[in-house]
Design a protein that fits this description.
Elements lengths: L1 H24 L18 E15 L19 E13 L4 E10 L5 E13 L9 E10 L20 H6 L4 E11 L2 E8 L19 E13 L2 E16 L8 E4 L13 E4 L8 E18 L3 E13 L10 H4 L4 E13 L3 E11 L5 E4 L2 E4 L3 E13 L2 E16 L5 E5 L2 E9 L1
Antiparallel strand pairs: 1-2, 1-21, 2-3, 3-4, 4-5, 5-6, 6-7, 7-8, 8-9, 9-12, 10-11, 12-13, 13-14, 14-15, 15-18, 16-17, 18-19, 19-20, 19-21
Amino acid sequence: MKRTARRLALLGLALALVTARGRAQEPAPSAPGEAATPSWTRDLRFSGFVQADWGIVRQSSQDEVNAATGDPLNEKRFVLRRGHVRADYDGEGPVFGSLELDANTIKAPTVRLLDAEASFRWPFAKEAAPPSLVTTMGLFKIPFGFEVLEADNKRPFLERATVLRALFPGEFDLGLRLKLKWRALNLAMALMNGAPIGEKQFPGRDPNESKDLVGRLGATTTPLDGVAVDFGVSGVTGSGFHKGTPSTKDQLVWRDTNENGIVEPTEIQVIPGGSATASQNFRRFALGADAQVRVAIPVLGELALRSELVLGKNLDRGIFPADPVAIGRDLRETGWYAGATQELTRWGMLGLRYDRYDADADASRQAGAAIVPSRAVFTTLAVMGMLRWSPGRLILEYDHNTNPLGRDASGAPTTLKDDMLTLRAEVTF
């Protein structure tokens, strides 16, 4: 009996200690009349950043409006390029998510949904060591290459390279993504609509049932002390959409060929109507490779070298939208960039980047009675200087642009003068 009594006493003491410890870890009780704070709010984090630009110089800027859209052509102005507010929930369980809004004045004062992710991870622990698997559904960045995935408030240059803005406009799309980490390897695979939020035809929507398969396999290694290397290969394949046309009626057209203002029988034409044409799908794809080398330079700071190469077909959705059904042939796209940045202690940075994008490697045009090769090549040489004072940055960048979409006084294609000097003020919170 005495032994049983001692055991019961020890058990009661252990229960009392556990209860006291649990009460000590509970949050302080709310004041009378105040609602208790839900436990999930302790895992909710808010963040964001603001990027305001001043277009000091823009050669293509005009004090005029676009006759087709009515948009002003003046680019020497102040503009809110990005204003992001983000909420992230990341507790200790298997479920986490994020929501991000963007405000800008690029076209007009606009607020839009930019990122919305619902994710499930395995193992359940938030700080679990690789291997780990994360499944995400929602609106997220397209897992292709390096600069598409790079955060806007981390990228040293003002905007992404031309080839990436053409093939992946807006960087975000809706879909289902799997991310796997194992040792130094990172794999991301996604099944996506194929209509990024920045594309010109159906932004954020999917006009056909086919989905794009996108993926990137990357690795990070440190071959030497103070040297880090990131590299990866990417691919995307899917189906684009050619919009059909409705049926048309016969039309009677008068062309005053002799410009005498009198209707003559020889100047009247009948344009026959046409039947409706059905919408069609077409195949598109791209392959990419990217690499970045970071070297710690004594006293000065980090030297970073970056480069990316992309080869695609019928994938342009932002600058020179590809429609092989309309023109009767495939469009081959090639693009690459190479850049370098050097920190100047913690207070500054200098950068240089050259990018080249050929929107149609087989482009041609009519010159009289002959068909001659044409150029659809965009290039940019960016020179950047930055002042940094955490959490802010002040960036001055000069871009020497060549744009093949210009026209001379006779209407013949020519290179559009489009150099620009931009000052950006940024703060992250």
